[in-house]
Amino acid sequence: MKVRLSEYNSMWKKSYEDECERLMEVIKDEIIKFEHFGSTAVPGMKAKPVVDMMVLVKDIYQIDKYNSQFIKLGYEVAGEWGIPGRRFMRKGGENRTHHIHIYQYDHPEIFRHLAVRDYLLVHPEEVKAYSDLKTRLTESFDETPEYRNAKHDYVVALERRALDYFKN
Fold first, then answer.
1. CB-CB neighbours of 98 under 10 Å
2. Residue 57: how many CB atoms within 10 A of its CB?
3. In degrees to the nearest 10, what's the CA dihedral of 119, 131, 112, 151?
4. Is 127 a residue whose pLDDT tops 90?
5. pLDDT over 80 at 131, yes or no
6. Exposure pattern of 127-156 as b/e (b: 16+ CB <10 Å)?
7. For residue 40, what is the DSSP state?
8. DSSP output for 45-100
9. What is the pLDDT of residue 94?
10. pTM above 0.70?
11. What is the mean pLDDT of the chain?
């Protein structure tokens, strides 16, 4: 898939909210909380125009019962997709609009994702640096896998800074 990098768009928040409503219709009794995370959740951040959403649920094993309903809403259900205990879904095909990460409320990955978002929200210099890196990388890499691999070390270091920030 081709890399699509956009300037921050305030409509991403509305897209997140609309998708929360759609998901609420399907798994209302399972949901504890929704979280908007990733680059589209950070004002001023350049991002692929794909809204990352986290859905925290009571029991992750109950979610699999809803797969046919997710498919009817246009989701591609991808199972754990490399993270045990997560359920991952994508919407939009080649012009993807949403990534849905469903975790049981006590999953250890939750904090990492939210720490990065919250760290960026209070560190505008990090938002600028990360946005600048993304821009440079799109000049060298057209395809998402290569782009993702090229920013991997930066993202790992950013996660470390975020986690350290919230440990103190």
1. 21
2. 20
3. -150
4. yes
5. yes
6. beebbebbeebbeebeeeeebeebbeeeee
7. G
8. --B-S-EEEEEEES-HHHHGGGHHHHHHTTEEE-TTTTSTTEEEEEESGGG--EEE
9. 85
10. yes
11. 96
